[in-house]
Amino acid sequence: MNFSSKLLENAVAEFSKLPGVGQKTALRLVLHLLKQDKADVERFSNSVTKLRNDIQHCRTCHNISDFTVCEICASRKRDHVTICVVEDTRDVMAIENTNQYTGVYHVLGGLISPMDGIGPSDLEIDSLVERMKAGEVREVIFALSATMEGDTTIFYLHKRLKEFKINFSTIARGIAFGGELEYVDEITLGRSIATRVPYESSLSK
Amino acid sequence: MNFSSKLLENAVAEFSKLPGVGQKTALRLVLHLLKQDKADVERFSNSVTKLRNDIQHCRTCHNISDFTVCEICASRKRDHVTICVVEDTRDVMAIENTNQYTGVYHVLGGLISPMDGIGPSDLEIDSLVERMKAGEVREVIFALSATMEGDTTIFYLHKRLKEFKINFSTIARGIAFGGELEYVDEITLGRSIATRVPYESSLSK
Question: What superkingdom heads the lineage (chains A, B) (predicted)?
């Protein structure tokens, strides 16, 4: 592209680095900001810098937080004997939005993925083992993506954690609520038949 | 959404104000930035603040520029007797990318749109009239969108400028090169037939 200004070119180049943002979208976003008040633009860029500089990771569950211990880990209302293991912050937010879970979390910061060069030592796994050693945990729920990386990570975690005699569970897999049978992929459908549940227990919730 | 951090919530709210960016996209962009080095994030937000604070508008053509007179207006290689009137910077960039135009520009900063409360006085129209008064301009090309606002603006500009005895032209409208007839909308197709050109002159380029 043929920019009439170096400053503009620079800002567009920075925005283009964001995931899913091409040069045209970047230009649209930057020109939008250019039309805003200086104070608004200042607030925009400060929010990013401040987030990056001041954010912390909860020293217990490693979720991002404004404090050294996150609100969930610090809460007395939560059930601290149940740990839900998730990949990242977005998963914590998604589960919190369901209002179905009252336990605490452990954020791995990724999944084991040899293809991307991510091994167990790159994730918050040792710290999970440490939490187990305290001896209060009674259940670990693996709430990871139903992908090869997710399954590999669960397999590895279970191997590391099984010496602690507690319950291990994974979130239920199957057909989504409201899902129409004809659009469900074969693997999911096949497994849902294989792992069918007694009708009475399916009514329990 | 249920944010675990006020800082995060803040940054997501700021990104959500950008056009076409919803809360989920904003979260994805912000979490991406959070994974970058502090220096990279600093560079990102500086590029925006610097652009907003330091950008200028060329005092001749009103295009955005790093200097008081833009590179195009300052260039001796350009044909300064032909002015191409456009809505905004993006149009200048689009036309420059074609490498077909050697004249100079005049950026209106918008189109007349009573629906949006934009009248002639909100646009750089008086300054265009001033440029005409210098007496050197020989052609004005209206390169505005083929919409009601574009047509209204051309109509108004022509009324203001016709006292200067020069050539006025608009960019050609019709079927796009490579366009398949069956997918062309009726208005464009109808007008292309009505404004058909002699076969010989269609070969000229």
Answer: Bacteria
CATH of B80-170, one of 3.40.1360.10, 3.20.20.450, 1.10.287.3510, 3.90.180.10: 3.40.1360.10
How much is the ipTM here?
A: 0.81
Half-sphere exposure of A55 toward its Cβ, with a 13 Å CA cutoff? 29
Here the tokens at position B154 are: 């051309």
Token readout for A88 is 């990242």
Report CA-CA distances (Å) from B82 to A21, A112, B86.
Answer: 36, 62, 13
Nearest to A104, CA basis, from A68, A71, A134, A129? A71
Residues 46-105 of A with CB under 8 A from B: 46-55, 63-66, 70-72, 88-90, 92-93, 96-97
Domain ranges (residues) in chain B: 6-54, 80-170, 174-205
Over residues B163-202, the pLDDT tens digits come to: 998 999 988 888 888 878 888 888 888 888 888 877 777 6
